[in-house]
C-alpha cells in the first residue's frame, strides 16, 4: 500500500465521526421543524400547585444576585408554594446582599434558607449538592445568580411536568438580557439560540436524549436524588445529571416558549473558556460512565448511541485537526499528489460541506421561532463560523483532557449585570492569558504555512479552510494584551443607538416581559 493511500484512509476514518455528528444534526433539524410551537405558549391554569424550590448558586455575585431574587418574587406562582435556597460560597459583600434578599423574599411570603460552608470543595457543584439538604419542594428550579425568570416561567415548568409524567427535568429556552451589548454578546446569543433549537427542540418529538443546562432547568427532586446530584463532575454539573437520568430510563422536556434570561459573555476569551469547560465536561462524563451505560438495561440502544454521539462530539475538533494537518503535511513532503488528496475529491467535499447548509438554516429558524429575524441578526449568522473555527484547538484539548479525566482549574464566568450599561466594571479585566493560547498560536502559524502551500498546490478547499482556521484563531487570542498596558480585550462595542436598545430590553425584562424584539 502506498503512502498516499494510507493518508487517504486515515483522513476518511477520522472524517466518519465528524459526519456522524453532522448528519445527526440534520436529523435534529428535521424534528425541530415539527416541534409543537404552541407548547406552553400561553400561561396555563393549574388545578394543583405543588411546592417548588428555587436553588440559587452564588459565589461573589454582587452585581447580579439581587435581580435574580427579585424576578422570583415577581412570579405569578403562589408565594406560599415557593422556597428559595441559596447555595452561597461568597466571600465578599455578596454575603450581606443575600442576607437582605432572603429577608425581602420572606416578607413577600416566600420561604427562604441559606446554605454556607467553610470551604469550596467541588466548587458550585459541591455547594448545590450540600444545599439540597434544605430543599423541600417537589420540584427544584436551579438558577445561576445572573438568571432572571419571567413571571410565568415556574407555572409553565410545573405544567410541563404534569402533562409529561415520565419527565425528570424541564429545560427552558435561554434568554439574553444583554444580547445587544456588543458584537460578541449578539453572536453568542445567536449561537445559543441555534444550539437550543437544534439539540433541544429537535429532541422533543423523537424523545432523543439531550444535555440539560445549569441555570435554565427544573428537576423532579425525587429523581435527581436517586441519581446522585451534582458533585462528581465540577466542570459541567447538569450534564452529569442529564446523562444519569436518561440512563435510568426517564426523559427531559424542552420548552421553547418559556424563557429564563441570563447574561452572555462580553468577550470572546470568556466564551472560549466556557466552551472549553463544557466540552471537557461532556467528554469526561462519557468516559466515566461508558461501561455502565453500555451494560444498562434501562436505556435503549438508540438512546445509548445518541448519548455517546452528543457527549463525545468534541472529538470532531481533534478529527478536523488530524485530517487537515495530515493532508497538508502530505502535500508538503510529497506523500501524495494534489489530485489524490481527499480535499480534491468533489464527492468528499460535498458530503462534508452539506451539514454547513443545515447549520445556517437552523440558525435562521432559531431567529424565526423567536420573531427576531432582523438584518443585524441575519448578518451575524455567517460570522458564527468565526466562533466555531477559533475554538477548534481548545475543543481538541478539551476532548483529550476529558477522555483521560484530567483535572484542570475551574473557570468562573464573570457577571456584571446591568452595571455594564452604566459604567466600566473591573469584574472581568484580570483574566490572564492561557498557557494553552501559545499552543493555539503555534498550530495557527503552522496552519498558515500549510494553507499557503495547499493553495499553491491547487488544493483550494484545504487551503482556504486552513487559512480561515488559522487567521480566526490568531484573531481570537487577543495577543494585543501583551503589548498594550491595561488592555481588557473588549468584544467590539456596538453603536450607542443599539446599546440604548439593549438597555431598553434589559428594563423590559425587569418589568416582566420577554424582552424579545
Question: Which keywords apply here?
Answer:
globular, eight-stranded mixed β-sheet, Spore Coat Polysaccharide Biosynthesis Protein SpsA, Chain A, 517 residues, 53% helix, alpha/beta
Question: What ranges have pLDDT less than 50 throughout 5 or more consecutive residues?
Answer: 421-430, 482-490, 509-517
Number of helices: 18
Q: Beta-strand level of the residues, as a percent range?
A: 5-15%
- Secondary-structure element pattern, one letter each: HEHEHEHEEHEHEHHEHHHHHHHHHH
Average pLDDT, rounded to a whole number, is: 84
Classify the fold: give the CATH topology of the domain at 39-265: Spore Coat Polysaccharide Biosynthesis Protein SpsA, Chain A
What characteristic shape results from the CA principal axes?
Answer: globular
For the record, the CATH class of the domain at 39-265 is: Alpha Beta
What separation lies between the terminal Cα atoms? 60 Å
- Per CATH, the superfamily of the domain at 39-265 is Spore Coat Polysaccharide Biosynthesis Protein SpsA, Chain A
Strand order of the largest sheet: 3-2-1-4-7-6-8-5
**Could you tell me the radius of gyration in angstroms?**
23 Å
Question: How many β strands by DSSP?
Answer: 8
The largest β sheet comes out as: 8 strands, mixed
